[in-house]
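Give me the 3D structure for Bpifb1 protein.
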Amino acid sequence: MAGPWIVTFLYGLLGATLVQADLRPPAVLNLGPVVIKEHLTQALKNHDATAILHELPLLSAMRDRSGSVPVLDSLMRSFLRYIIWMKVTSANILQLAVQPSTYDQELVIRIPLDMVAGLNTPLVKTMVQFQMNTEIQALVRVEKSKSGPTRLNLGDCSSSSNTLRLSLLNKLSFMVNSLANNVMNVLVPALPQMVKNHLCPVIQQAFDDMYNGFLRLATAPIALSPGALDFGLLSPAIQDNNIVFNLEAKLLDSQARVTKWFNSSVASQMETTPNGAPFSLLMRQDLVNAIVDTLVPKEELVILLRFLIPEVARQLQADIKEINAEAANKLGPSQMVKIATYSGPQIVLNEDGATAAQNIILEVFPTNADVRPFFSLGIEANYEARFFTEGDRLMINFSNISIERIKLMISDIKLFNPETMKGTLTKILEYTLLPNVNGKLRTGIPMAMVRALGYEKSLWSVNKERVGSRVRICIRNLPRQPLAPTSSANEAQPMKCPSWSAG
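Predicted structure for Bpifb1 protein (503 residues):
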């Protein structure tokens, strides 16, 4: 399934700032018509829908209908007595079509059928065959229930005689051809009702299976380390020819206890998947940052600077000597630096991609035996953030750490401008904090959705739109190949998502 696609499966940051509340859904899963068609087709196969077509009671339906055509009544009843066998010999469900309805919150599904039927009669030695093409149309609607949650339901399943085409496949004698044409004339009103009575219940079951499968996929928890991200359905919706799930989210700790709950009763202005992309997953920015907080919890790092990075320790000593030579002389071999983080890096989008900001307290002690630091600094560190995938995992990596703001909080050596040692402090963070943060993120976030929807891999990119900060889904066409991990030789290169505005 979905062999020719490589999917760029992206988290969307729905425009919330770090401090501003957002009433839009914490997450939105948008399933395009390609995914709907493929999964409904598979569900019909699972229910063996073509076997139902093979069992259509053509002969009994014709006998029931023959009396409703008075002109043909006598001839048909006479001929029907000579039919000893009649059934569908070949049946295929052709490519489904998923189309938007003229009504809001409604989806049209068209299911074309191709069948060949045959009949045997002692009047001729060969089988009389004719081809039947028709189409089933069903409507999918959002339905509210007083006793249960809102859901999508399939209804108004029917097959119209206007879509029915019958043609005789073999030419026999004039009398047999004439009678075969009369058989087809009787089938024209009989077949649509037969298809509706026998196949529509199976289509209903297949749709319910597909919908429940989508719902399980949308609400499947994502394992984090530690804890998990758990989704719940706020409401389903239909936008154009897409199925949309507005989701709430909960962050769970390692004991499955809820630590944060993201909820909203307000549906956002929805957008279809861009340029025919199969699906998209968008997450509100506060939820994305809460995930990073879970993966990179606040902590305190203690570093013996001369043992870890002696050249930076010497550089720091030289900086302190410029401020207070006596203090610099007190720095011993066990010179110590403490770095306390107060949250995980907070993702911020910009025109070129993503950055992250993190607030820390950095303290310098002359030795590891001292309990009072020489000085304490409040620092806002910035990173460049990169999203990519390894297998079925979303990976986040930070690089190029820099100091955006720095403030002297406590000093026992002398008041000084901390900007003078900004270069040294940046190196300390580069050698200590940056590897620690990336180490926490190295396991990545498992994204089973890509393979569950039938796609081989995902590519990630970050874009900032005028309608709000988002990371979006894009696709790229590749030759069809088995559903298996792509080799390194076929690795797709990073790309930018196409730009589009709100629907």
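The first helix runs from residue 33 to 46. Let me know if you want a second pass.
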